[in-house]
Specification:
Helices cover 25% and strands 30% of the residues. The chain contains 3 helices and 11 strands.
Length: 213
């Protein structure tokens, strides 16, 4: 910074690179953003709350209270076999001198501007979800596994609905609360697995009822 304080630090952590943005403070400077070459990155508000959080699957934009403003999935994420939620360009000002521009997984730029001089750092990366992030092959899924997956989606949907009811106490709004897009996608995947797995019609019907209710 013009003050002489360290603004951006590039370090190597084992086999990955890390870009760290610090606030303009001489001592005990707080971290304002961390970008890792493995696809995991986080930006923070001045008060320390998480602003942007990104993984190899996608990312989310939060307000200062911690509520999600929007989310997105990267087009190359193997976990998003259904329609993905596209990223809308994001521009952040971490402080007076440092800004962040997010246009895609491999198009993330940290810009530093001070005293008429500018420096840009490309901190994006093209990392896909490993095979471990995928659901097991349909042939390996038995009745118990399918039921557990269906109950998991159902429980997550109930928790999300509960949060919605707390935000909108009026019972007139409850029926308008829709499942999040990622839960709809997971439910469709489970239903697809259910049709191709070697399970009884009774179990198949139970899974459908649980996951799609």
């Amino acid at each position: 910074y013009p003050s002489g304080n360290l603004a951006i630090l590039l370090v190597r952590e084992k086999e990955r690179l890390v870009c760290i943005v610090q606030e303009d403070t001489p001592t005990k400077a707080r971290i304002q953003a961390v970008f890792k070459s493995n696809g995991r990155s986080t930006c923070y508000y001045p008060n320390g709350a998480v602003w942007i959080n990104m993984t190899v699957q996608g990312g989310q934009y939060l307000d200062q209270a911690g509520s999600r403003v929007r989310r997105w999935t990267w087009p190359n994420s193997v976990t998003s076999s259904g329609p993905c939620v596209p990223l809308r360009p994001i521009f952040l000002s971490l402080n007076q001198h440092v800004g962040v521009r997010i246009l895609g997984q491999d198009r993330i730029t940290v810009s530093f501007l001070a005293m008429g001089q500018q420096a840009k750092f490309n901190v994006g990366t093209k990392v896909q979800v490993s095979d471990g992030g995928r659901l097991p092959p349909a042939a390996r899924l038995g009745e118990d596994e399918l039921l557990l997956l269906a109950f998991r989606v159902r429980i997550l949907w109930l928790f999300d609905r509960l949060r919605g009811c707390l935000n909108f106490p009026s019972s007139e709004q409850w029926d308008k609360i829709k499942p999040p897009a990622y839960l709809i996608t997971q439910a469709l995947k489970i239903l697809q697995l259910c049709t191709t797995s070697d399970v009884s019609d009774e179990i198949r019907g139970s899974v459908r009822a649980i996951a799609s209710s």
